[in-house]
UniProtKB/TrEMBL annotation:
Record-given protein name: Cytochrome c
SUPFAM superfamilies (alphabetical): Cytochrome c (SSF46626)
InterPro entries linked to this entry: Cyt_c-like_dom, Cyt_c-like_dom_sf, Cytochrome_c_Oxidase_Subunit
Keywords: Electron transport, Heme, Iron, Metal-binding, Signal, Transport
Domain annotation Cytochrome c: ranges: 14-107
The organism of origin for this protein: Undibacterium jejuense
UniProt cross-references to Gene3D superfamilies, sorted A to Z: Cytochrome c-like domain (1.10.760.10)
Source species taxonomy: Bacteria, Pseudomonadati, Pseudomonadota, Betaproteobacteria, Burkholderiales
Signal sequence, renumbered to the chain: 1-19
């Protein structure tokens, strides 16, 4: 099962990131990492509701590369939002890759 998800994650990354060193594993993110995110970015299916009600951007379904670079920008301080900087500061490269894989696979 783990293997399958790794392959899926790879497949979804392949067309946006040809030279990704860290391969995201959506299953790892789903199991233990998204708990930090759902309080604000909501649960799978978030995209189906009315986005204008929320001030938190939709991340499900965005490209893995975009999510990854956004999180790295928060971690570095290039993006300034305080709570996202706090969150991203606690993430490793692997965490970011896993989360990006997970959210990019949401519809
Ligand atoms: C405390 C609430 C909160 C939590 C928890 C949180 N976020 Fe966010 N997130 C936000 C807000 C608010 C923004 C918009 C910030 C801005 O304007 O820069 C944001 C922005 C983002 C963006 C950029 C989206 C875009 O369209 O540019 C990404 C990617 C993201 N969050 C991922 C995550 C992930 C992954 C987690 C869990 C590890 C997480 N966030 C946890 C509130 C939160």
């Amino acid at each position: 099962m783990k293997k399958l998800f790794a392959i899926l994650a790879l497949a979804s990354l392949a067309h946006v990131a040809s030279a990704a060193e860290v391969v995201g594993n959506a299953k790892d993110a789903a199991d233990k990492k998204i708990a930090m995110c759902i309080g604000c970015h909501a649960i799978p299916g978030y995209k189906a509701t009315f986005p204008e009600v929320y001030q938190v951007p939709m991340i499900g379904g965005q490209s893995a590369k975009y999510i990854e670079s956004a999180l790295q920008a928060y971690r570095k301080g290039d993006r300034k939002h305080l709570s996202m900087r706090g969150i991203a500061g606690s993430l490793s490269d692997q965490d970011i890759a896993d989360l990006a894989a997970y959210y990019s696979q949401q519809k």
